[in-house]
Amino acid sequence: MTGFCSGIITALATPFKNGGVNTYELAKMIEYQIEGGADGIVILGTTGEASTMTEQEKAEVIATAVGNFKNKIKIIVGTGCNDTRRAVCASVNAEALGADGIIAVTPYYNKCTQRGIYEYYKAICGAVSVPVIAYNVPARTAVNILPDTAERLADIPNLAGIKEASGDMPQAVETMRRIRGKTDMFSGEDCLNLPILSIGGAGLISVVSNVAPSLSKRIFTLVKENRLEEANEAQDFLLPLISALFSEVNPIPVKAAYNMIGFDVGLPRPPLTELTDMNKAILRKQLQKAGLTCVC
Fold it and tell me: Three-state SS across 18-78?
């Protein structure tokens, strides 16, 4: 399927406080996304640190997003797992709690075959009626959705897209050729947002839009209006901030960035660590250059 969501979809960080989820701050963060023009949010994804959260905490995040912002912004819930049964269960639960869609990372650690990847998504899509986005990020999972597998996945009725974060543009181009018109592609690498959009990407599932949703939305809008020179200028303007936000493993820098611009998101959970002082200085400088006011 195509057309589930387009534009800017922010891979949202999860705020923690006193050992749990800070639902008050989470609501403020989602309001910031809506005000900045974001079209959707991904909760409980990689940036959201879902792998270190309890099932109760995940339910709190979904309840906060759905309970306060349903029909105001698309709410897409991360449900991927290296156990297909658990991924299916999480997907069914997210749909029951009101998610607009699902995003499921490829099975990690097990290193399944391409057939295994296909069967995994077939099982998830078959268990829910909401749209499902497949998330391809081999650097984290050790498996890669190859173009011929993407082509097969595109025939699943509620497979709404592929978040392409392999960093391999030749692969992305070939995948786009095979899925075009059948399902959508979303950029999953902020540094490649412009080229992914230029080959027909439906939108960006972005980290930088956590702190700069309006700047990210501008790139998308300019591309869709065929104003490519201006789009390149907008991407060039944002690249130094993108680089600073990936100076250490995501979401370490983006949580530091949120705190710098006045949110209270806390620190990443172990084994992730706090951003180093050197990278904090670089990040603060780039936030300011991007026009964001740092309060600390």
Answer: CCEECHHHHHHHHHHHHHCCCCEEEECCCCCCHHHCCHHHHHHHHHHHHHHHCCCCEEEEE
The 10s digit of each residue's pLDDT in 202-249 is 999 999 999 999 999 999 999 999 999 999 999 999 999 999 999 999
Query: Six-digit token pair at 294?
Result: 């740092």
Domain 7-227: give its CATH code.
3.20.20.70
Tell me the C-alpha distance between 251 and 233, whole Å: 26
Q: Is the peptide bond before 271 cis (omega within 30 degrees of 0)?
A: yes
Tokens of 52: 């270190």
Predicted local confidence at residue 139, as pLDDT: 94
pTM flag (> 0.90): yes
Q: In the chain, where are the structural domains located?
A: 7-227
Known catalytic residues are 135, 163
pLDDT category at 296 given cuts 50, 70, 90 is: confident
The answer to whether the CB of 30 falls within 8 A of the CB of 68 is yes
The mean predicted confidence, pLDDT, of the chain is 97
CB neighbours of residue 289 within 10 Å: 12
